[in-house]
């Protein structure tokens, strides 16, 4: 039994990976990131609060902090390492931790979350992590994207939801077969084989959680009071095409997280690429730059990514190795 901390909103996405004109499928960068820390810190939703409401797994640049003042605390200049395989990416990516509750005695243990095993399996089964995608439009007349500016951050999903509701976010789960563990499965995310809620049968290869962020930006605000309204999903489609509304005219790379095992019912994103690096890669996407292979970016050895960790700021036992009597922060099981 997995405690259902967060229920889900989901929108079944079009089969974007299948409908593209490219023989290789959609255009995207894909890379693994190792775990930077697990703690109750959230500079986006609870800036300055130590500890914040619930536990997150965080990956990316090691300048991650309870306060990340836009622009002045630019992770690409304040980090000394990144737990991501692409060495110029100091962005931070974080998701909710998942807890297993013992049916025998009611205690809790944190469920490991990890990257898929692409990129040579190097991050799979490490102490944790997740896989990041940056996707370009799959069809349409303008396949270019404009990369977010330093200081940009956004939130998707809703940790307060306890039932499936309307929403223009895309969060879904796939039950992986044993032989899908290395790749994390293939084909479009959030397709008809995926479910909004956790799978109800055992998943030998793990549970794959997908979190898809909006792809249109107002082009002006690095954040907004609800951390969401400066970005926008295309109506009816989580995996967006090329068009954006006039209110949010800038088509940005669509960020997607893939987490093996987690419920990941919301995702937080804080841009922190070295100047120009992501735009360079998005412009190069196509024949010579795709998925795990993009020569205009530098892959660092997995050992460097794995070595990039950060001590907790909110110091507490988050149940990685021990069984907890209650969820961190005393959060209720619902
Ligand atoms: C967090 O940021 C503050 C400045 O806002 C800085 O003084 C502090 O050293 C940082 N802490 C960590 C753990 O990086
Ligand atoms: C509670 O149950 C788990 C297994 O479900 C077990 O590993 C753990 O040791 C138990 N804890 C106590 C205090 O009995
Ligand atoms: C993949 O792993 C093999 C065997 O460990 C190694 O020889 C090879 O260099 C690796 N390739 C990359 C791209 O890391
Ligand atoms: C798209 O980007 C390429 C490469 O930077 C550029 O040559 C082209 O003009 C751009 N197209 C549009 C419609 O902006
Ligand atoms: C869902 O959205 C539709 C159309 O916007 C609206 O009519 C309906 O009331 C919404 N339902 C909920 C539960 O918010
Ligand atoms: C993001 O949302 C949180 C929680 O609602 C809020 O405290 C924070 O101020 C928001 N960020 C901005 C820039 O408004
Ligand atoms: C990673 O850390 C280990 C243990 O501290 C150390 O032996 C190793 O040299 C480090 N690797 C890199 C690439 O820094």
From TrEMBL:
**Record keyword Lipid metabolism present:** no
Q: Which InterPro entries match?
A: DUF1996
Q: Where is the signal peptide?
A: 1-18
User: Is the keyword Signal in the record?
Assistant: yes
- The domain of life for this entry's organism is Eukaryota
Domain DUF1996, residue spans: 42-260
Question: Which keywords appear in this protein's UniProt record, sorted alphabetically?
Answer: Signal
PANTHER family, alphabetized? DUF1996 DOMAIN-CONTAINING PROTEIN, PTHR43662
Please give the name of this protein.
DUF1996 domain-containing protein
């Amino acid at each position: 039994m997995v405690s259902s901390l967060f229920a889900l909103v989901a929108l079944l996405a079009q089969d974007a990976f299948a409908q593209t004109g490219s023989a290789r499928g959609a255009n995207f960068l894909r890379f693994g990131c190792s775990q930077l820390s697990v703690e109750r810190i959230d500079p986006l939703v609870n800036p300055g609060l130590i500890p914040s409401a619930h536990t997150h797994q965080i990956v990316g640049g090691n300048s991650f902090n309870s306060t990340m003042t836009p622009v002045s605390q630019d992770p690409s200049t304040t980090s000394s390492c990144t737990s991501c395989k692409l060495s110029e990416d100091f962005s931070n990516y974080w998701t909710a931790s998942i807890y297993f509750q013992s049916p025998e005695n009611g205690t809790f243990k944190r469920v490991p979350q990890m990257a898929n095993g692409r990129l040579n399996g190097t991050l799979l089964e490490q102490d944790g992590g997740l896989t990041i995608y940056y996707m370009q439009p799959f069809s349409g007349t303008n396949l270019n994207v404009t990369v977010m500016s330093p200081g940009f951050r956004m939130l998707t999903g809703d940790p307060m939801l306890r039932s499936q509701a309307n929403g223009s976010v895309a969060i879904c789960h796939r039950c992986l077969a044993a032989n899908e563990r290395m790749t994390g499965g293939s084909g479009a995310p959030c397709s008809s084989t995926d479910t909004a809620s956790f799978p109800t049968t055992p998943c030998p290869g793990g549970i794959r959680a997908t979190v898809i962020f909006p792809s249109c930006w107002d082009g002006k605000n690095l954040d907004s009071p609800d951390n969401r309204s400066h970005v926008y999903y295309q109506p009816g489609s989580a995996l967006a095409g090329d068009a954006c509304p006039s209110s949010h005219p800038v088509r940005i790379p669509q960020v997607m997280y893939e987490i093996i095992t987690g419920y990941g019912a919301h995702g937080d994103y804080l841009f922190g690429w070295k100047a120009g690096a992501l735009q360079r890669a998005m412009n190069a996407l196509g024949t010579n730059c795709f998925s795990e292979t993009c020569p205009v970016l530098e892959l660092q050895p997995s050992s460097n990514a794995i070595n990039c960790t950060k001590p907790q700021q909110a110091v507490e036992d988050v149940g990685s190795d021990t069984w907890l009597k209650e969820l961190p922060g005393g959060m209720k099981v619902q």
